[in-house]
Specification:
The complex is a heterodimer of chains A (189) and B (109). Chain A has 189 residues and is an alpha+beta fold. Chain A is built from four helices and eleven strands; from the N terminus they run βββαβββαββαβββα. In chain A, helix 3 packs across helix 4. Classes of the chains: A alpha+beta (189), B alpha+beta (109).
């Protein structure tokens, strides 16, 4: 067996914000009718969480469920638990119209934290990231410079950011540039 | 810069988060149609000065298609609505009428 590595292989940058590779993480795309009781039961059984409301995230211990679109969720779990989680979903959703697919290797997962985290992201994304407008529990899929990205904020003030694996270097690079010392704007106080 | 709200995921964002996908409410003519019908479907597009209906996709967001009514002159966005409709809903038509009384766009008015 080959050993799985993240595309950024543990990269870390400390500037106005700290940008770091979040490490190997299990990610499962789950599509189907999010309103059905079978879907709710399946997600509960697989990761122990409910189905989040529109553009929201529900987080647990090492797991999370993200609302990605009206018929799509992203489940986050331990990397070595992906196969088991998918098996649980497939068993619980038998007979339903759904898709559960391992996308762990197709994504890059970053943490952006520190005092300048909001500002670094706001330089790259056309999103109001003021503390009043963007609060923990929200998921936002948007454009980060020239690539699509999704991010959410946890209760500790850490941004969790996901984008495609193929643009990992680019994503890390633009975030690092946005957080370079000397580039303070101070728009969020 | 257009500021619009995706009717599928509710995000209000600016136009670079989305992508335009051509004219809305087209009736398609495919294999078996007459040359005239196909030609009209393929090439005869509306190019109004004023209210216009376009398909847009939230391609950096939820990935869904929807329809936007906007003004090509003032860049005002009259509204967005789901793509699974055959004609603009009343509140969109009313919003256009408020700004451009007597407007027409193909068969709509």
């Amino acid at each position: 067996m080959s050993e799985a590595v993240t595309p950024l292989n543990g990269a870390r940058f400390e500037g106005l914000a700290t940008i770091e590779d979040a490490g190997l993480t299990g990610m499962i795309t789950l599509r189907g009718n999010l309103a059905s009781k079978e879907m709710k039961a399946a997600v509960k059984k697989a990761v122990g969480l409910g189905v989040p409301a529109q553009r929201q995230v529900l987080s647990g211990q090492g797991s999370a469920v993200l609302w990605m679109s009206p018929d799509e969720l992203l489940l986050i779990c331990a990397r070595d638990g992906v196969a088991e989680t998918i098996a649980t979903l497939e068993e619980a959703l038998k007979g339903q119209h759904f898709l559960a697919h391992d996308v762990s290797d197709a994504r890059t997962y970053l943490h952006v934290s520190g005092a300048g985290a909001r500002e670094a992201l706001a330089k790259l994304c056309p999103v109001d990231l003021s503390p009043q407008a963007f609060t923990p529990g929200m998921v936002r899929r948007t454009r980060m410079a020239q690539v699509p990205a999704a991010f959410w904020l946890d209760d500790r003030g850490v941004f969790h950011l996901i984008c495609f694996r193929s643009v990992a270097d680019y994503a890390f690079g633009v975030l690092r540039d946005a957080a370079l010392p000397g580039g303070e704007v101070g728009v969020y106080g | 810069m257009l500021i619009l709200t995706c009717p599928c995921c509710g995000v209000t964002g600016e136009e670079t988060e989305f992508h335009q996908g051509g004219e809305a409410h087209l009736k398609r003519f495919g294999p078996g149609s007459t040359d005239d019908d196909f030609h009209t479907y393929m090439f005869a597009k509306e190019n109004p000065k004023g209210a216009h209906f376009e398909r847009w996709r939230h391609n950096n967001g939820c990935g869904k298609w929807f329809i936007m009514a906007r003004d090509t002159l003032t860049l005002e966005v009259y509204g967005t609505y789901p793509a699974q409709t055959h004609e603009p809903p009343k509140h969109i038509r009313d919003a256009i009428t408020a700004k451009r009384p007597g407007w027409t766009w193909r068969a709509f008015a």
